[in-house]
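[step 3/7] inverse_fold.run input=structure_tokens len=371
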């Protein structure tokens, strides 16, 4: 997302504050993207601006839609109620801005729940929104294109990892046949599908992708009976790694040179905020930050030393995320055991941004540019 353009004649060092609200955007230009996951409900309303977009309104709430799903196989009445209440707020925002173009998607919790059809009907009836349950491949594709702006022109092998509440998507992309400056754009072009046979451009080649049905909430729930904090963490990490065995590049040695992991999720951004020692979360400092495997390991060890009580008190983790940060860290550590890197790029972006890019690219309203 682009920063507002600097006005002519501004001082050499403008104060780092948000610019005053721009003129009310034309509702015909607006797009909405909503991502309903196992844990969170998030929405963005944005307008295209150059090769990026400008966010006009947003919404994010932890609704824990998947609470209890692991045991019962169903979405509970309470979690559906919480989620519908959040979706009503989203619907009010969509109406207020008079947005006509939108994609509202649901992921793993709705893919797995036996009563998800019933829930989708309830959302339509009570919140007036039509949710679409997307398949893992599309979820993986949207995560990949949202991260395109963070791909280095030096990257030859790219691993994009999206750690969700109910599932984790991994996509391995070979960029070696794409000229350096074209690499971020080649990633954007994957919005049309992972396997493009007749592209006139040098293409990003998807070597393999996998959707592991373990995210921060589902992995935590599977090991909730283990009392010891460190033992639970170790078991979660090894169990996740076992679930990667089918992923093709799993056993290949990667040289750290020319290899980049982009991680998108609350886990990765929380680890980044801890690494930076932020007292208050700041997206501009976190999105695009590069971390080494060793720096991430240091943060995770600190979380283990803090224990559950200390993590709850840590302002960078907080009440909501404390229960999920160790399962997320276990996933992250499993990945870094398989593919250590000096370049893990932290992405504070994900499905919503991917949905916006895909809609805007399909409509041809984004300018060609260095995404």
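[step 3/7] decode complete -> sequence:
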């Amino acid at each position: 997302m682009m920063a507002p353009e600097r006005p002519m004649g501004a001082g050499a060092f403008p104060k780092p504050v948000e610019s005053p609200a721009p003129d009310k955007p034309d509702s015909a230009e607006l797009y909405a993207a909503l991502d309903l996951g196992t844990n969170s409900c998030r929405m963005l309303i944005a307008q295209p601006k150059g090769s990026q977009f400008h966010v006009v309104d947003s919404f994010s709430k932890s609704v824990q839609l998947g609470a209890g799903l692991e045991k019962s196989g169903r979405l509970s009445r309470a979690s559906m109620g919480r989620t519908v209440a959040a979706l009503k707020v989203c619907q009010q925002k969509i109406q207020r801005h008079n947005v006509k173009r939108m994609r509202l998607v649901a992921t793993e919790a709705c893919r797995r729940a036996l009563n998800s059809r019933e829930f989708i009907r309830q959302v339509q009836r009570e919140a007036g929104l039509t949710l679409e349950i997307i398949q893992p491949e599309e979820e993986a594709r949207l995560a990949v294109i949202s991260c395109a702006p963070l791909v280095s022109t030096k990257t030859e092998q790219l691993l994009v990892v999206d750690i969700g509440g109910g599932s984790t998507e991994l996509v391995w992309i070979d960029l070696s046949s794409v000229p350096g400056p074209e690499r971020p754009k080649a990633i954007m072009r994957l919005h049309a599908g992972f396997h493009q046979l007749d592209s006139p451009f040098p293409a990003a080649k998807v070597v393999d992708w996998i959707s592991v049905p373990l995210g921060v909430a589902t992995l935590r729930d599977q090991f909730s009976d283990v009392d010891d904090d460190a033992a639970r963490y170790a078991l979660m990490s090894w169990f996740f790694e076992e679930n990667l065995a089918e992923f093709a590049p799993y056993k290949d040695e990667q040289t750290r040179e020319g290899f980049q992991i982009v991680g998108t999720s609350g886990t990765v951004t929380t680890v980044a905020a801890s690494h930076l020692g932020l007292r208050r979360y700041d997206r501009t400092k976190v999105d695009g930050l590069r971390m080494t495997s060793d720096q991430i390991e240091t943060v995770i060890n600190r979380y283990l030393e803090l224990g559950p009580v200390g993590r709850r008190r840590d302002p960078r983790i907080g009440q909501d995320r404390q229960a999920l940060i160790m399962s997320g860290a276990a996933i992250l550590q499993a990945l870094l055991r398989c593919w250590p890197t000096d370049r893990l790029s932290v992405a504070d972006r994900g499905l919503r941004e991917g949905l916006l890019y895909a809609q805007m690219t399909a409509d041809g309203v984004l300018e060609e540019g260095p995404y």
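[step 4/7] annotate
Residues 293-313 form the longest helix (21 residues).
DSSP finds 13 helices and eleven strands in the chain.
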